[in-house]
Amino acid sequence: MILKSSTEPGFPDRFSTTIHLVKERKKVTQNTQKGRKPHPAIAPMTWEHLERGSSPVDWCEGNYLISPDIAEFVNTISNILFLVGPPFLIYLFKDYGKFIQPAIHMIWVLLIIVGLSSAYFHATLSLLGQLLDELTILWVFMATLSLFCPRRHFPRIFKQSRKRFCISMSVFSLSATALSVCYPAVNAFALMLLAIPATYLMYKELQIVHDKRVYRLGVRNTTILMMAIVCWINDRMFCDAWSRLSFPYLHGFWHILIFISAYTACVLFAYFFVSDERPESRPQLKYWPSNNFELGVPYVSVSCYKKLNDHI
Question: How would you class 239 by CB atoms within 10 Å of its CB: exposed for 0-12, middle for 13-18, buried for 19 or more?
Fold first, then answer.
């Protein structure tokens, strides 16, 4: 789609200003890649970095090609699953939240915040949006790990205490948050490293699970995660090649695939948690709309309706 000229009547003045900021930022990024002066965003953040177009990150999709108000249109609207999926998961997990772990609903709310933050970032390319996007991902991961990681995987120092484990993860998250604010340029690559412990824990749990449906879902989840990472790397590292193919939209596919992988991982760890700590609840992995259709929406059903007394 052809951009509207800034000289047309009624065209927002901020559009030309934003385009100028984006072009200048791309020039500085190119200079950095050639070994010249580093981008100032690797220095501690100041108020000027909260402006539209202030983020050092610019994905492969062209900026302001569809709307003068949305920098990366496809990358913005591809977050829709983060907004429509979690409310439905809250409904499916109503019994789990009532009788096993009420904090499961906090995970779904955090996923909504991830979607809103990501949409805001890609719409504005602001450093504030980037930080919100990345930090909410960090907190979703740490919250899920703290609440649902089976105790047998706790380091010995925690002595099987989930309370100590949660406090430690909270301190780590706060420290990582502070570092992310000070040095945002490295956040995306640091977050990708979280896939390593997540995949390891998933592998360890799938080695001992007896339910074949759970095992197959774990395999599908890992496959989707790998596909998402491939999309992320290609969009980040091989933008020129994909642009020549007129398909600079792999980061949008990353959003779709990573949501599917993220919520599925949460479902699986919710299953591992109740199987490990409340086996008398007889947890079952089920699918909506049909339990026989394993490509539906997975959730965990419990059969023992008595609130969990978790001595942490």
Answer: middle
